[in-house]
Amino acid sequence: MASVTDKDMSTLRWIGEIPGKLNMIDQTQLPEEFVRIDCETPEDTWHAIKRLSVRGAPAIGVAAAYGLVLGIQHATELPREEFLRRLKETADYLAGSRPTAVNLFWALERMQRVASEHDTLSPVELTERLLAEARAIEQEDREMCAAMGEFGQTLLESGQGVLTHCNAGALATAGDGTALSVFYAAARAGKQISVYADETRPLLQGARLTSWELQNHGIDVTLICDSMAGWVMKEKRVQAVITGADRVAANGDSANKIGTYSVSHLAKAHGIPFYIVAPSSTFDFALATGEDIPIEQRDPAEISRGCGRQTAPDGIDIYNPAFDVTPAENITAIITEKGIISPVTSENIAAMLKAEA
Ligand code: MRU
Predict the structure, then answer these.
(1) 65, 133 in Cβ contact below 8 A?
(2) What do you get for the CA distance between the two ends of the chain, in Å?
(3) Final residue of a structural domain among 87, 116, 145
(4) pLDDT of residue 185 exceeding 90
């Protein structure tokens, strides 16, 4: 199994200046092997996002911002109009990699806005300015993770068990994570928290990534199958659920990894608080409710051949939505970098975040 001793644990990082490259942990190989890969073109970045070498909403946003720089850094000799066309084409291309996490579109729109606000810069200067913007997106993500962790840990008491689903940790962000940053902050505050990690079928982000990440950070973690979540609640092993999100609508409906919806209902049935941890970059104020959040449909083979061997008969019909939407009414609070939103209503979300949007 991959050990982290002497390893560069940054989920992703830009190497060099202009020209440079995007280097990242290949999360498809964990926990068996710890491998870092380079992306030198937008195509490399698109495929890395699509196949989940880099995944998790905030990390996808950071990767896309750097992917945009990769698309223009060798195009600075082009006439200005052509250079700007290349910029737009690269952004549109990267936006097609995955549909649900809004951070991807948020980062690409922010990069393009900066480009249009600096229309007097030469292509060389603009490329440097956009690298600085991608670095700012990465740095701000790190700071948002730290703030969410501190706010979130105030909701937990030492001795509690907490269930999490998928991976919303350092591997999903540029910093300490969203949901998992709460566990790191709680540990720094001296609180003993026992984390229960759902394995998160079909791609096992909970088993492969969350349990690996928490184990490496010395956090007490117990892995369970997804189907055990209700029973650990019934047995009173967990007193809270904390997950991340991929897109939060204006009313608080929150898309996250498939299975989150079921967990939220289980938490409600057992009277357990259900918390979402999400930075402002994950909110989509263009969508009034979660009804219109696009849900990524993935390859059926993730279900029929997910564990490296055939696990379903040939020719079987398979439905494989990668995300579901938890209704705001099931969410006790949303923890953002600005503070804790509770109860989760459009008004409270707007009051906390809208001025920033
Ligand atoms: O398909 P993935 O692995 O990208 O899904 C990731 C999740 O659902 C995470 O919970 C979400 O992005 C929050 S990450 C901080």
Answers:
(1) yes
(2) 42
(3) 145
(4) yes
- Is 155's C-beta closer than 6 angstroms to any atom of ligand 1? no
pLDDT (0 to 100) of residue 46 = 98
**What's at 127, amino acid-wise?**
T
State the maximum Cα–Cα separation within the chain, in Å, rounded to a whole number.
66
State the CATH number of the domain containing residue 221: 3.40.50.10470
Do 41 and 164 reside in the same domain of the chain?
A: no
Distance CA 333, CA 72 (A): 41
Token output for 271: 């009277």
Instruction: Give the domain range for residue 325.
Output: 149-352
The domain tally of the chain equals 2
DSSP 215: H
Does residue 103 line the site of ligand 1, with CB under 6 A? no
Residue 8: what pLDDT? 86
Query: Rounded to two decimals, what is the model's pTM?
Result: 0.97
Mean pLDDT of the chain: 97
Do 124 and 175 belong to one domain?
A: no
Same domain, 307 and 332: yes
Q: How far, in Å, is the centroid of ligand 1 from the Cα of 259?
A: 12
List the alpha helices (DSSP H) in 239-296: 260-269
Catalytic residue of the set 141, 176, 198, 246: 246
Is 246 an annotated catalytic residue?
yes
